[in-house]
Design goal:
alpha/beta; 3 domains; globular
């Protein structure tokens, strides 16, 4: 056997072994794909241990899917739980449209279908949706575990456990420690995204869940190590296979780029589809194609001026860091579950460009720079919109508001300072200040240490107002004497929040 054939055989063996190892599940755990409450796709984790089996309900974060909490469901099933890990509306395989209120409704419906729920675990937005379901009394678990989240559970709430990474971009430890109604467990190395797979946090979740239902925690799960090792093994195999590609005729040299990129993509997809949802989705294809085309044009431009391929990575890194710094000051504005552009750019684009640069160099090794550029463009295009995609939203409905002329005395009654306590729409709370400017009611919001406004608030009646900046409705509550005592913030798709008027 020649050296090239031996290398190809070893590479193919590594590739195949990696794919096989990626299907390793904890002993005594069975995973099934099911549909709950009529139309909610879910993973069900079943335990082979003798019953009774307490119930755990898991909810992923914004722009993620049920697969992102696979490690939690698997570990809890190994501890004797039956776990239901759902796709929230607009995410993953769900055919419904996303609003935060609809996500809360889905958890309520699923909890009634599989319940009673003993333990709820929610990551990021999923934690807030579950927290709202608990606050409204729709779900009554014995324990709520919020992973990278800051939910408000309301009165008579069950015990609350915060799990977070030290480098969480949205909920830093200093912020979490301000909450006195919850216990906090920190991982020393995770950021917001990695919290979903952090073994330290998974272990803490299992221990707390077992304590809540009077069970003894099992030995630490280990099969996840095999699954993560399988990714590296398959990628090593892909590297070896691409090295064995023969040198192609000049007119076909460019095809080396797609061949190399496809080999690496297959290695990653086949080893992560179970617990990361790396399977390509057709709905992402148009944006991924555009991203790949733009990347290729940029690379062709750098090639013309003999600029190294990694220069694109350096430029994006500078832009991403700048966006993250500037955006950190505005990320809490109103619809606080929207992923922040700078963070997404940094957390998705930078790894994609690093991987693309490496794969591009491999493709160019026995080919041409153009082949390497094609390979890098494909890798970047596929990665950019595979994760961090906004969920499917309902069609935007235009609400027609008609402003009226209101007596100045009625407007003046609405002026003053309103304080909104922290809730699952505004986890840091919010303040609204209103005043008169001539015969117009003006407002300014204080949120997350920043002020937004001034903006005009238009009356539709003596109590119902709206603004044209965010499309928010402001409903002023009056007592029997006609004095305004509170205001309700109503935004489509979010729970209503009530702000109490502060006395002068």
């Amino acid at each position: 056997m020649t050296r090239a054939k031996l290398l190809a055989a070893v590479a193919a063996a590594c590739f195949a072994t990696g794919v096989l190892l990626s299907h390793q599940i904890e002993p005594g755990v069975r995973v099934e794909s099911i549909t709950l409450a009529g139309n909610t796709p879910a993973l069900q984790f079943l335990s082979a241990a003798p019953g009774p089996h307490p119930v755990a309900l898991l909810a992923h974060g914004y722009s993620a899917s049920k697969e992102s909490l696979f490690c939690y469901g698997e570990a809890l099933a190994a501890a004797g739980f039956v776990c239901f890990d759902v796709d929230l509306p607009g995410h993953g395989a769900s055919l419904s449209s996303y609003t935060f209120v609809e996500a809360v409704h889905t958890l309520d419906t699923v909890a009634r279908a599989v319940g009673p729920v003993d333990v709820f675990i929610g990551h990021s937005m999923g934690g807030f949706a579950g927290g709202e379901a608990v606050r409204e009394g729709r779900m009554k678990p014995k324990l709520v575990i919020a992973v990278g989240s800051l939910p408000v559970l309301g009165d008579h709430a069950p015990p609350l456990l915060f799990l977070a990474g030290r480098y969480d971009e949205y909920f830093p430890p200093a912020l979490l420690k301000t909450r006195t109604d919850a216990r906090l467990v920190l991982s020393p190395w995770s950021d917001h995204g990695l919290e979903a797979w952090d073994p330290i946090l998974v272990k803490a979740a299992v221990a707390a869940a077992c304590a809540a239902v009077g069970k003894t925690p099992p030995a630490v799960s280990t099969r996840w190590r095999w699954r993560f090792a399988s990714i590296g093994l398959a990628l090593v195999g892909a590297f070896g296979l691409t090295l064995c590609l023969p040198k192609l005729p000049l007119r076909w040299a460019w095809t080396r780029g797609p061949l190399v990129a496809t080999t690496f993509i297959l290695a990653f997809v086949l080893t992560t589809r179970t617990f990361i949802d790396a399977m390509p989705h057709l709905r992402y294809l148009p944006l991924q194609t555009v991203a790949a085309a733009i990347t290729l044009l940029l690379l062709m431009g750098t090639a013309r001026f003999r600029i190294p391929r990694w220069s694109l990575l350096a430029a994006i890194a500078v832009v991403a860091i700048g966006c993250a710094i500037v955006g950190a000051k505005i990320r809490l504005i109103l619809v606080s579950f929207m992923p922040h552009f700078g963070l997404v750019l940094f957390l998705v684009s930078i790894p994609a460009l690093i991987e693309g640069t490496i794969v591009g160099a491999i493709a160019a090794r026995r080919g041409s720079r153009f082949a390497g550029d094609i390979a890098m463009a494909i890798i970047v295009g596929c990665a950019l919109f595979q994760w961090g995609q906004p969920p499917r939203m309902p069609p935007k409905q235009t609400v027609r508001h008609t402003a009226i002329k209101l007596d100045t005395k009625l407007l003046e009654a609405c002026t003053g300072h309103y304080e909104f306590a922290p809730d699952n729409s505004f986890w840091l709370g919010m303040n609204l200040t209103n005043w008169l400017r001539g015969d117009r009611l003006m407002g300014q919001i204080a949120l997350g240490g920043q002020n937004y406004g001034p903006f005009e608030i238009f009356p539709e009646s003596a109590t119902n107002f709206f603004d044209k900046v965010w499309g928010t409705q402001w409903i002023f509550i009056r007592d029997e004497r006609g004095e305004v005592t509170a205001v309700i913030h109503h935004y489509p798709g979010l729970p209503e929040s009530e702000g109490k008027k502060l006395k002068k």
